[in-house]
Description:
This protein is an alpha+beta fold. Helices cover 20% and strands 27% of the residues. The chain is built from 7 helices and 16 strands. The chain has helices spanning 24-38, 73-88, 111-115, 135-143, 146-153, 278-284, 297-302, and strands at residues 70-71, 123-130, 159-165, 168-175, 183-188, 196-203, 211-214, 217-220, 222-227, 230-238, 243-250, 253-255, 260-264, 275-276, 314-321, 324-325. The strands form 3 sheets. Strands 1-3-4-2-15-16 form a 6-stranded mixed beta sheet. Strands 7, 8, 11, 12, 13 and 14 form a 6-stranded antiparallel beta sheet that branches. Strand 9 and strand 10 form a beta hairpin. The chain starts with 23 loop residues before the first helix and ends in a 5-residue tail after the last strand.
Amino acid sequence: MLWSLLITVAFAGYGDAVDGRPNRMEREVHLWTNAVRISPDSFSADFGGDKHNCYAEFLPEQTAPHAPLAWHDGLGEIARLHSADMDSFDDVDGEPAGSAMAHTSSDGTGFADRVKPYYEGHALGENVAWGFKDGFGVVMAWMCSEGHRENLMRTTYVEMGVGQVDTYWTQDFGGRDLTPRVLNMGTHLEAAPVEEVTLAVDAWQATQPVLAVLDGVNYGMQLTDGVVGSGLYNAVLPVNPGCHYYWFTSGQERFPEEGAYGFGDCSFDDAEAGWSGPDTLAAALPSADVNGDGVRDSDQLAMGCDVAGGHAGWVALVGLLALRRRRALV
């Protein structure tokens, strides 16, 4: 089907969920993409717990640190729609699973025509994959493929969106004038944490400690890849059964900006993304400083204040620089 030209207008803060986006798998793809951009030489070692042998294939410019990519919900929306389109036409006419993987939509709409209505920038790119069970695996496969790695490491791109449906993955990139954020993407790494949870976030030129906030309590995070202030941070924390909310802070910047992601038996405002907004957080964590302004939300509620807080598979790619088509691998 031809995608609608109407773009969903999101009023949430940066990184807050909109219509189920980004879900945990999509956040994981974004997290690992930023991790390899910020610290590509980590890929030559024990990156993310796995050994990889393709670092020697990186071009010299791909071994230098790159600024992370910010989440763009328009790119995330069309990436999700494209993954759903591929999934809906999978195994048609006896073709094997995965045969629907392509950069052209099922109705023949080309990549650029599909993405441009959802993005206001001047440069576009796309990676596509099928058959991978998690975000880490698909990012590692893209990084060990020359063309996909070129998209992942291109300095022209400053934003991205990810769409995951079943084992189809779409990663759309965009470029425009944009100042890099300190915290761009964070998530929990276990699908269903039991006894402990690993919270992870990327940071860029952070001048203050990077903290994970779990159920309103601040925890220091460990730098696992990169250099102090710019790299991948994580915190492994014990948890009991029940509902748990988390977010990340560094100075005045917060991810997500207004709400929180979570896991367990929470009544989420957005169940698909596992996200709840500031009002739900204020009720669930009345003694916590939800928006990071140094005031407990129970005190803010008593004063009548607003607590919103300000603000193994197959891969294919296509990349456009200033809307110029590059090569595709299927």
